[in-house]
Amino acid sequence: MDTEIRIKRVLPATITRVYDAWTRAELLMQWYCPNPRLDLKVRADVRVGGEYVVEMGPHVVRGTYLEVAPPHRLVFSWRWDGTDDEPTRVEVELSEVAEGTRMVLTHTAFANAEDASNHRIAWDPELDRLADLLASVDAG
Fold first, then answer.
1. Angle, nearest 10°, between helix axes 15-23 and 113-139?
2. Which of these CATH numbers, 3.20.20.80, 3.40.1050.10, 3.30.530.20, 3.40.50.150, describes 5-139?
3. Are residues 100 and 14 in contact, defined by beta-carbon separation less than 8 angstroms?
4. How far is the C-alpha of 25 from the C-alpha of 46, rounded, in Å?
């Protein structure tokens, strides 16, 4: 098993709306947690060197924005509070396609395959919630 995750999705929205959903705290708070029952708080200073903090109930992840290239690319470090793990790296690449926006999410630098698998299990429902949010915004 691999120590990185690569997820490809076509999202039903413009590239600008998808990028906004990744970078605006008020939109992140609507989808950026695999369990919608957890209280979600997001702070994001989206600029190179800026930091973010996501509180998902008792779980807190934080990192630093490494690349910010609107509306096509966003790269940030990812580290859970309360662990000694080295930070991992998340890359979000966006491109326009006829059906909306193609998103490629790559999450790398996991210590082992089990950690990568656990994160994959969490990313899938989060990205489903993102797609639902974008579809409802476009429908409205």
1. 120
2. 3.30.530.20
3. yes
4. 10
Max CA distance (Å), the chain: 44
How crowded is residue 17: how many other Cβ atoms within 10 Å of its Cβ?
18
pLDDT, tens digit (0-9, with 9 covering 90-100), for 8-60: 999 999 999 999 999 999 999 999 999 989 999 999 999 999 999 999 999 99
**Residue 75 identity:** V
Q: Over pLDDT 70: what percentage of the chain?
A: 96
Other CB atoms closer than 10 Å to residue 5's CB: what's the count?
Answer: 20
Note if the bond before 87 is cis, omega within 30 degrees: no
**CA angle, 4 as apex, 112 and 55 as ends, to 5°?**
85
Distance, C-alpha 68 to centroid of its chain: 14
